Amino acid sequence: MKKIVTILGARPQFVKAAVLSRVISNHQDLEEIIVHTGQHYDSNMSAVFFEEMQIPNPKYNLKVNGLGHGAMTGQMMEKIEEILLIEKPEAVVIYGDTNSTIAGALTAKKLHIKVIHIEAGLRSFNMKMPEEVNRILTDRISDLLLCPTSSSIDNLKNEGFDELSNLVVNCGDIMKDAVVYYSHTSEEKSSIISDLNLVSNEFVLATIHRQENTEDITKLKAVFEGLERISKTKQVVLPLHPRTKKILIDNALTYNLKFIDPIGYFDMLELLKNCNLVITDSGGLQKEAFFNKKNCIIAREETEWVELLDNGFARIVGSNSKDMMDAFEDFQNSTADFSIDLYGNNVGEKMHSEIVKLLNS
Ligand code: UD1
């Protein structure tokens, strides 16, 4: 059986890996070894996803976290190299655009191990984002680029990938499979709506964690002021990332919002299903809003998921609190048809067959 090593470390990667690891274990034609870099380590940022989504236990946990970008990526690479030399896989699978992604890709490539990048081709065209740097470099050295959207394919064409030997395939977005697969279970297992005394459609779900928002205190304040304005009309529920929490505490910033600790996937799905709309700077949550038929206000200057903008499901407001309020009011008065297929179906199966094809070629 061909062996692959999956390298992951941050919350959104656990959601994506849950889908593909299940498909791989169903087919029983690949041996998958999971390496957790340790980038996310609090139990409600990591263990809860492995438990709820029944992701196979990582064989290795590198426990690299809480460092600057260079130290984090470098330490991960050093430890990943040792593991790849022991395991000798045919390919390494990496997800998305985090420091764990680039560390896995770069280490594998230098050992002449095939690199498979899931969620390839996305671009924000903002090179100040660490994620943009990570994804551009990862794409260039990946042997198989599994893209989620037609715009991600276009991005790669514009960068000249047609002339390169990297294989590029549009399989759709793997997070769609996760929503479809876990939606029923989350309803059974999560009691977050009653626990928090929430009324369906009467609250807004918000998350803010991106470095571009958290490293600039003026921006961060403006985003939270926007959320506080909205909370006068609808309650705002905000699961708080540890990074954002620390900055709010360090700067003695308090807001009249319903802050909760980070939550697992089932609770998140139930909040998504029951909320009025979503306000976020997360990439994944923008699509999860769409999958759950909710509009999304994006607290960033750009998005990689341009089809959400093009079809009017989402709007970019940056850190402008007035634009945030205007978007909120516009979405209250609009009804959208979410039936359009933007992200495909059966994505995990398609990815699995592309991986098997690559390894047999
Ligand atoms: C990382 C990704 C980002 C992704 C996000 C998902 C990079 C460059 N960024 O950002 O693309 O959207 O994950 O959530 O890889 N922390 C804890 N407990 C945890 C996890 C983090 O306290 O379980 C703290 C860390 O110690 C650190 C801060 O939060 O001080 C930021 O964590 P880090 O992993 O560096 O980046 P994220 O902001 O989570």
Descriptive keywords:
six-stranded parallel beta sheet; 2 domains; alpha/beta; binds uridine-diphosphate-N-acetylglucosamine; seven-stranded parallel beta sheet; 361 residues; Rossmann fold; 16 helices; 16% strand
Question: Would you write up a description of this structure?
Answer:
With 361 residues, this protein is of the alpha/beta class. It folds into two domains: 2-173 and 344-359, Rossmann fold (3-Layer(aba) Sandwich), CATH 3.40.50; 181-331, 3-Layer(aba) Sandwich (Rossmann fold), CATH 3.40.50. The protein contains 16 helices and 13 strands. It has helices at 11-27, 47-52, 69-87, 99-110, 130-140, 150-158, 174-189, 192-195, 211-214, 217-231, 242-250, 265-274, 283-291, 306-310, 321-332, 347-360; strands at residues 2-8, 30-36, 60-61, 91-95, 114-118, 144-147, 167-170, 203-207, 235-239, 258-260, 277-280, 296-298, 314-316. The strands form two sheets. The protein has a seven-stranded parallel sheet, sandwiched between helices. A six-stranded parallel sheet has the order 10-9-8-11-12-13, with helices on both faces. The protein is globular and about 55 Å long. The relative contact order is 0.13. Bound molecules: uridine-diphosphate-N-acetylglucosamine. The site of uridine-diphosphate-N-acetylglucosamine (UD1) has 18 residues, from α1, α5 and α11. Residues 10-12, 39-42, 45, 65-66, 97-99, 130-131, 209, 242-243 line the site of uridine-diphosphate-N-acetylglucosamine.
